[in-house]
Amino acid sequence: MSEIQGSSAGACASCGSTIPAGEGTCPTCGHMLGDATAPQQPPAPTDFGQPPVPSTPVPTDFGQPPAQPTWGEPVPAPTPVPAQPTWGQPPAPVPAPTPAPTDFGQPPAQPTWGQPPAPTDFGQPPAQPTWGQPPAQPTWGQPPAQPGWGQPVQWPGATAPATPAAKSGRGRVAVIGAVALVLILGGAGAFVALSPKSTPATPEATPTTVAAATASPTIAPTPTLAPTPTPSPTPVPVEFTTLTGAMTIGRASPNVVVLQNGTVLIAGGQVAGGKSTTSAEIFDPVAGTFTKTGAMHSPRMWGTITLLADGRVLLAGGSDGKYRIATTEIYDPKTGKFVAGKSMTTARVEQSATLLADGRVLLAGGYSEGARIATAELFDPKTGKFTKTGSMTSGRNGQVAVLLKDGRVLIAGGDNKNLSLNTAEVYDPKTGKFTKTGAMAFKRFGAEGTLLADGRVLIVGGNDGTTDLASAEIWDPTTGTWQTTGAMDDGRTAASIAPLADGTILVAGGYEGDYVLASAEIYDPSNGIFLTTSSLDTPRGEAGTVVLPDGRVLVIGGWSTEDNPEATVEAYGPAAAAS
Questions:
Q1: Is the N-terminal amide bond of 147 cis, ω within 30° of 0?
Q2: What is the gyration radius of the CA atoms in the chain, in angstroms?
Q3: Residue 67 φ/ψ, nearest 5 degrees
Q4: Alpha-carbon distance 383 to 344, whole Å?
Q5: Up-side HSE of residue 393: CA atoms within 13 Å toward CB?
Q6: Exposure string (b/e) for 265-298, b if CB count within 10 Å is 16 or more?
Q7: Res 337: pLDDT
Q8: Which pLDDT score, from 0 to 100, does residue 6 have?
């Protein structure tokens, strides 16, 4: 570097300032006079590429003067501020968030600023806010109320999206149904209710916890509601109903049978004053009317009536009110008349009559000539004749006789010498002989019996010589033995009995001590139990009983007081069809 002392004044090559004479260094910038190699300091660029006005501070983005730059050092570039407008230019408008449309055209609650609105679950409107009301504003800095911002919105009744954070928050839909189970007793018997019917309730949603925010919420499948159960039909009450029509005359112990055309023949019986009658009539269950038909040739009560295979009807024996008779008559439905038939080999009262599988009729026992007889005979409808067959092992009257499924006939109980019997025997048409079988547990006279669906035989009630029995027994043809079963509520003698369509057995009326009964019960062979059912409108003993083709049971006439047998008839079945 050369000496400059004593030289004349000059301009600084660096900053252009005047250097006084005799000075070797610029008093302004400190450069040495005559140092031509000193670097020239460029002006500091501004944020927008414009040089600042000398000695004027460059304004910053926020209106504050920058720190004074050090000469000889580059001016540092200002720290960029994101999203700030360029100075001197109008700021760019911030686009307003577009609200997500809902299924019902209503805007959702205001989303968090800077965040897009959360999609709703299944495209359904959120539970919040209430439609038609402005949405509640969220508290800034606090988690929002249900539904959460950016969370899937839960529509009432829908299943919330399953997320690992809140499986317990799933919604449920409850549908209440009923099964109503109704057990119907006695085919058309009394009914018992298993479960109330319930009317299906409207599905309701349980409160749902909204899951935490997820980047891509998982949409759960649309829940499938359980099918609405079909309401159970209302059970029709099954009961006894007195028919609007009545017989032309009151009768006890009438001879009754259902004809092949579905009408009912009612003939003879005991009338007022204890007399027997020749009158007969036809009941039409469709029209509900009673119409007189031809009269019998002889009055008869306590005899038997049997529908033959050809549609005609055999009436045999009984009492004419004075004497035991052996006469018979044949009723022809085509002509509506009775024709006198050949007489039995023996007069009989309170005998049994059973139609065999080959069309013949077995008549056994009864009261004759002052004694209970053991003889039996067969009626052949082809010849119209009666012939003797093997005799029973014991004389008896008032016994039970039931045709078995194998064609044999069971004879049980009855009376001999004013003593009730517990003995039983079986008649085989193939051999024409009676054979003893197991004895009953109880002696029974005036009992009632019927064949069960499984081939066994049920016998109920009767009198043991002192008491009207409530007990019942079942005979098994495979073993030839008896077994007691459930007992009735009431002891009964001379009651009505009838098998029902469902396999249960109806037992109604009868005598218990000095009383005539109106009560009725249903026996269920599946559990061996008797259950009470609708009572008769009128107490009846020694009534006639038949089962109609439509399943109803008719209880016809019978004694209700000591003086007057009934002319009314009751039907057991659905109430709407009974009359």
A1: yes
A2: 56
A3: -65, 145
A4: 13
A5: 18
A6: bbbbbbbeeeebbbbbbbbebeeeebeebbbbeb
A7: 98
A8: 39
Q: What is the pLDDT of residue 562?
A: 74
CA-nearest of 316, 496, 475 to 410 is 475
Q: Which residue is associated with the tokens 């609105």?
A: 117
| Contact between residue 371 and residue 324 where contact means Cβ atoms under 8 Å apart | no
Q: What is the DSSP letter of 520?
A: E
Q: Are 199 and 186 in contact (CB under 8 A)?
A: no
In angstroms, the CA 135 to CA 107 distance is 9
**How far from 443 is each of 421, 465, 466, 488, CA to CA, in Å?**
5, 8, 10, 16
> How far apart are the C-alpha atoms of 513 and 445, rounded to whole Å?
14
Q: Please give the backbone phi and psi of residue 577, each rounded to the nearest 5 degrees, phi first.
A: -105, -10
The pLDDT score that the predictor gives to residue 64 is 53
Q: How many CB atoms lie within 10 A of CB 237?
A: 14
What is the rounded CA–CA span in Å between residue 476 and residue 484? 11
Q: Residue 219: how many CB atoms within 10 A of its CB?
A: 14
Q: What's the rounded Cα separation, in Å, for the pair 445 and 447?
A: 5
> Which pLDDT value is given to residue 370?
86
**Which helix (H) or strand (E) segment is 314 a member of?**
strand 313-316
What's the residue count for the chain? 579
Nearest to 364 by CA among 297, 407, 413: 413
Residues 126, 109: contact at Cβ < 8 Å?
yes
C-alpha to C-alpha distances, 546 to 146, 499, 550, nearest whole angstrom? 74, 10, 12
The pLDDT of residue 369 is: 83
Looking up tokens 């460029």, which residue turns up?
Answer: 42
**Position 499, amino acid:** P
The residue whose two tokens read 């030839």 is 480
CA 217 – CA 166 distance, rounded (Å): 13
Residue with tokens 């829908």: 158
DSSP H helical ranges for 111-184? none
Q: Structure tokens of 2?
A: 């050369």
Q: How far apart are CA 19 and CA 330, in angstroms?
A: 168
CB 555 within 8 A of CB 530: no
What is the C-alpha separation between 497 and 184, in angstroms, rounded?
Answer: 19
The list of the chain residues with pLDDT below 70 reads: 1-15, 17-25, 28-236, 575-579
The DSSP H or E segment spanning 432 is none
β-sheet bridge partners, residue 305: 315
